[in-house]
C-alpha cells in the first residue's frame, strides 16, 4: 500500500477543509453582515444573541419570526396604501369617480396578478423545499467526508501494523517451528488435504452409524432403568431391615450388660461387707 498517496490525499483534504470551514456561523455570515446594526439596541436583545451564536434551532426560530413579521408588515402596507388612495380620491378636486366597468377590469387584473403571485409562491415554496433537501444531503455528505477522513488518518498506522505482521509471518515461514505442515510443497499439501477429507468423511459415516444406533440404545437404557427400579426398592428394603436387625441386636446386648453390671455391683458390696466383718472379728 502506497502510504505517500494516502498522506498526499489526506493533506489535500485538510487543506480544503481549512480553506472552506463549513459551520453554521460561517454560513450565517452573509445574512448577519447584511443586517443593519443599531448601536442603541441593548446587548441582551434576543435577536442579537441568536446572531452572535447562531444554531440551527435559533436560525429556524428567527426565520419563523421574520416570516410572521413581514406578513404583518405587508398587511399594514396594503392597508395604509388603500386608505391613502381612498382619501385622495375623496378629497381630490375633482373627486375620482370609478365606474362599474373599471371595477370589473380592476378585479380581472387583480385576479390575474393574484394567480401569478400564487404561482410564484408555489415556485418559491418548491425551491425552498428543494434547497432544504439539498442542504440535508450536503450535511450528510459532509459528515460522511469527515468520517472517511478520520478513517483515512488511521490507514497509515494500520498499514504499518499489517506490514509488520506480514514480515513476522514470512519469518515464521522461513524458520519452521511447531507447524511443519505449513511449509509443505503444493503436492504434499494437496495430498494432506485429501487425506484429511477422507478422515472427515470416515468420521461422518461413523457418526451417522452411531446416530442410527442411538434410538435403540436409548430404548435399551430405558428398559434397564425400568428393571433396576424394583431392585432399588428391594435394596432399600433390605438395608432398612438390616439396620433394624442391627438395632435390635445392639439393644439385646445392652440388656445383658446391664444385668452383669448389677451383679458385679452386688458382689462388690458383699465383698466389702465381708471384709468389714472380718476386720471387726479380728480386732475383737
TrEMBL record:
Lineage of source species: Eukaryota, Fungi, Dikarya, Ascomycota, Pezizomycotina
Swiss-Prot/TrEMBL GO biological process terms: attachment of mitotic spindle microtubules to kinetochore; protein localization to kinetochore
Signal sequence, start to end: none
Comp. bias (Polar residues): 44-57
The species this protein was found in: Stachybotrys chartarum (strain CBS 109288 / IBT 7711)
Protein name: Kinetochore protein Sos7 coiled-coil domain-containing protein
Pfam families named in the record: Sos7
Domain (Kinetochore protein Sos7 coiled-coil) ranges: 68-142
InterPro entries membership: Sos7 (IPR037475), Sos7_CC (IPR048781)
One Gene Ontology CC term in the entry: kinetochore
Region Disordered, residue ranges: 33-57, 211-248
